[in-house]
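Inverse folding, one chain.
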């Protein structure tokens, strides 16, 4: 059945309003498009993916929604008859969505002109599933609305509903704060209520007012204001212009789809900017759940249409049903966002478990199951309307049996999550308010000294500091550049490279910066990399034979020996703790990979075999692991692998550059340099990638950490 004609002519006033709003949106969208095309050229040296994703959201709101608003306004002013909204079959949307996921992962994680090419793919990933919901329903219902009706509903959901939701979500938490301020003592008892391992946790949660506070916060923060805001797009049409329940349902679906697209861009953009591979997973998860916002808005629209005879109870029941569904989704998705954030920033997310299973995995399973249930509910509503059967919302949502099942389902979701996340409250506060959590002071806290280079005095000099970032001491003071410090095993000496004699040569100095001694004297450039475990030899890199090769020499600079002797570039040697092996980087096979060889240069063995660039190997003190850098997943990250090249594990997840790994003497920590906070600073983390802690904090560049005793 095609779209039904309206009982009254379109309002010219609203048509002109749509035209003016559309024009303003087009202007803003043009500005966003100019920024999107020009920003990569103006800031080519910076990581601007986050800004480009914001520009793409502006392009969607401005050019796409603005064009649709102008189309609706002009058509209404000219009294043109709009054709029925006929969209391609839903399976085409999902096939395209699958291609988008694959293409987006390639562009994002392999840095294929990502600032230009990824944002349009990102927009499609956010929009296709939501529009696919509309396409499926309108086909099943016989095309009940027109193109102009669908366009206005989608624009209203993307603009008016978003604006009102943001306004209400800003005001309501403040109101909740003032209402709950007298209950401040509840917060103080939080740790007692959910104390990990304490007996009776389920009973304490069930009977604690804390559950009420948690439920109120979950409901007030998003579902209550958003379900109200999304329904505003439906009211723009007026009851006289919506003549059938099919039209009411479809206009609600279109309005909810517009809202869903913007919200998808918000969350999916967050993961795209900070954790490349996670974008695909979150986009797929939200794609499956894209039915949520259209369905909830359609329920309210249907209730609003049925309340035309004054029975406002139908509207209230529909609204409460929408809020309930939305609350269930938020009860799963928001903890998932918090946990993945903890895992990303503090390495803590996977440590929270229920019955031995990671909470993150359980939340994903719950959200997928909930998405399938939402699709079943939408199918039930659409099928009933297609058969001209009025689906009765009352028995479905407010019968005693339904209420009991609803309460039980909420308890199954919220109570275990609340119990598991109880210990996470402290880390969440730390990550949000004070940055990543610092290592707990214990007997295994990092010790020793970390040498590094810094230009904090407008010149590259060597410094050292305690492993907790204290007692920063300048060791060199020379107009030349002093770089790449390397501790001797006994902690008495530091080898480094300097051009103080107008050529890059290797020097060593005492741990206090005294007794500076030149070790190499060759027209070629030389760089130190690693001491032998007995402190008798230094492995270094040099151009002295016309190619970048690895050499070793005595700690006094004598007995220089070429170890590699091949046309490839070999550099960044790292001596194994037993003194028998040297790990190094080489492009022997046309790509930068990690190799190892005997200390005499024999038995060269390839350890990595990956299209990415692998470099900067660093052998663990126990000899079992090698930390290294890999340029993959869109940027430079730190990995570890077994000494035989197996069990490759990624440790850092950050769109910044993380490099120069150096093990603590006890092998439980790794120091590294990163520009994740805007410039290169020195950090430490546990050997498993957790407890990332920033040690230096200044506007200078701090690099090349070397951990000594």
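Residues assigned per position:
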């Amino acid at each position: 059945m095609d779209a039904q004609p309206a009982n009254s002519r379109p309002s010219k006033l609203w048509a002109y309003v749509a035209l003016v709003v559309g024009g303003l949106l087009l202007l803003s969208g043009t500005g966003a498009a100019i920024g999107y095309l020009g920003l990569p050229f103006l800031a080519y040296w910076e990581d601007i993916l986050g800004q480009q994703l914001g520009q793409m959201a502006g392009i969607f709101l401005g050019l796409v929604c603005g064009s649709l608003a102008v189309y609706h306004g002009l058509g209404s002013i000219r009294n043109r008859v709009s054709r029925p909204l006929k969209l391609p079959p839903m399976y085409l949307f999902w096939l395209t969505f699958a291609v988008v996921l694959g293409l987006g992962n390639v562009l994002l994680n392999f840095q294929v002109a990502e600032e230009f090419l990824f944002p349009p793919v990102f927009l499609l990933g956010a929009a296709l599933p939501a529009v696919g919901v509309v396409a499926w329903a309108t086909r099943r219902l016989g095309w009940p609305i027109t193109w102009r009706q669908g366009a206005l509903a989608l624009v209203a959901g993307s603009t008016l509903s978003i604006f009102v939701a943001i306004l209400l979500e800003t005001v309501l938490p403040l109101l909740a704060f003032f209402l709950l301020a007298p209950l401040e003592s509840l917060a103080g008892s939080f740790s007692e209520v959910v104390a990990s391992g304490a007996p009776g946790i389920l009973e304490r949660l069930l009977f604690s007012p804390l559950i009420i506070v948690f439920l109120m916060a979950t409901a007030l923060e998003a579902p209550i204001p958003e379900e109200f805001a999304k329904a505003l797009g439906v009211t723009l049409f007026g009851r006289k212009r919506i003549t059938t329940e099919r039209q009411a349902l479809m206009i609600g679906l279109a309005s909810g789809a517009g809202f869903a697209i913007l919200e998808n861009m918000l969350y999916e953009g967050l993961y795209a900017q900070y954790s490349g591979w996670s974008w695909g997973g979150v986009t797929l998860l939200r794609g499956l759940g894209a039915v949520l916002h259209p369905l909830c808005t359609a329920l309210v629209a249907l209730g609003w249409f049925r309340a035309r005879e004054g029975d406002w109870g139908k509207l209230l029941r529909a609204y409460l049903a929408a809020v309930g569904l939305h609350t269930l989704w938020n009860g799963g998705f928001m903890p998932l966002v918090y946990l993945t954030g903890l895992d990303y920033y503090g390495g803590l997310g996977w440590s929270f478990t229920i019955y031995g299973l990671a909470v993150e995995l359980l939340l994903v399973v719950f959200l997928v199951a909930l998405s399938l249930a939402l699709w079943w509910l939408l199918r039930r509503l659409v099928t009933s309307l297609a058969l001209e059967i009025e689906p009765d919302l009352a028995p479905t949502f407010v019968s005693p049996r339904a209420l009991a099942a609803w309460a039980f389902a909420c308890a199954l979701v919220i109570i275990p999550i609340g119990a598991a996340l109880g210990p996470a409250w402290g880390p969440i506060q730390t990550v949000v308010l004070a940055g990543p959590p610092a290592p707990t002071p214990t007997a295994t806290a990092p010790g020793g000294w970390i040498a590094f280079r810094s230009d904090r005095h407008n010149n590259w000099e060597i410094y050292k500091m305690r492993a907790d970032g204290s007692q920063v001491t300048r060791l060199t003071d020379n107009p030349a550049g002093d770089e790449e410090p390397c501790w001797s095993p006994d902690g008495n000496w530091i080898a480094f490279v300097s051009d103080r004699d107008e050529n890059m040569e290797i020097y060593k100095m005492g741990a206090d910066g005294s007794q500076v001694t030149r070790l190499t004297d060759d027209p070629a450039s030389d760089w130190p990399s690693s001491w032998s475990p007995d402190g008798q030899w230094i492995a270094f890199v040099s151009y002295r034979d016309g190619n970048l090769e690895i050499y070793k020499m005595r700690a006094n600079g004598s007995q220089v020996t070429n170890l590699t002797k091949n046309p490839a570039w070999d550099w960044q040697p790292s001596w194994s703790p037993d003194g028998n092996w040297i790990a190094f980087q080489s492009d022997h096979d046309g790509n930068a990979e990690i190799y190892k060889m005997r200390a005499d240069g024999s038995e060269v063995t390839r350890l990595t075999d990956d299209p990415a660039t692998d470099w900067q190997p660093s052998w663990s003190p126990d000899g079992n692991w090698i930390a290294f850098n890999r340029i993959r997943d869109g940027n430079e990250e730190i990995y570890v692998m077994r000494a035989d090249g197996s069990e490759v594990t990624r440790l850092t997840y950050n769109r910044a550059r993380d490099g120069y790994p150096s093990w603590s003497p006890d092998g439980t920590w790794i120091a590294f340099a990163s520009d994740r906070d805007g410039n290169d600073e020195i950090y430490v983390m546990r050997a498993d990638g957790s407890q990332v802690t920033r040690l230096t904090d200044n506007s200078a560049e701090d690099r090349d950490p070397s951990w000594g005793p």
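The longest helix spans residues 312-346. DSSP finds 19 helices and 26 strands in the chain.
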